[in-house]
Write a structure and sequence with these properties.
single chain, Arc Repressor Mutant, subunit A, 2 domains, 7 helices, elongated, HTH_AraC, AraC family transcriptional regulator
């Protein structure tokens, strides 16, 4: 698989992360089979497609927490989480703090 196609896959996921893009959708976008894309995606990123999408979602959410004043519930819904509680559990696993604690920490730093 050409390097440009691999980079396109990563960029495509980041561009579509709020809509919870599936592996099938990404494979269709690049014109390769799902299996072929899955194998090369893991080779490129070191993680499965699903894990990478989750990581990208949480990074985008972390950014929104510090760049906007939207509620955690609104942000959770935008990124396809069933509730703010579900988001909070996933967020805590990646950042070792709740979304509200993450936002507060940033605001304390920004205000200092």
């Amino acid at each position: 698989m050409p390097v440009q196609v691999k980079q396109f896959m990563v960029d495509w996921v980041k561009q579509h992360v709020a809509s919870t893009p599936t592996l099938d959708e990404m494979a269709h976008a690049v014109g390769y089979s799902t299996y072929y894309c899955s194998r090369h995606f893991k080779e490129l990123t070191g993680m499965t497609y699903k894990v990478y999408v989750s990581k990208c979602k949480l990074e985008a959410i972390a950014s929104e927490l510090i760049m906007t004043n939207e509620t955690i519930t609104v942000i959770a819904q935008r990124y396809g989480y069933a509730s703010s509680d579900v988001l909070s559990r996933a967020f805590y696993k990646q950042y070792q703090k709740s979304p509200s604690a993450y936002r507060k920490q940033y605001m304390d730093i920004k205000g200092a």
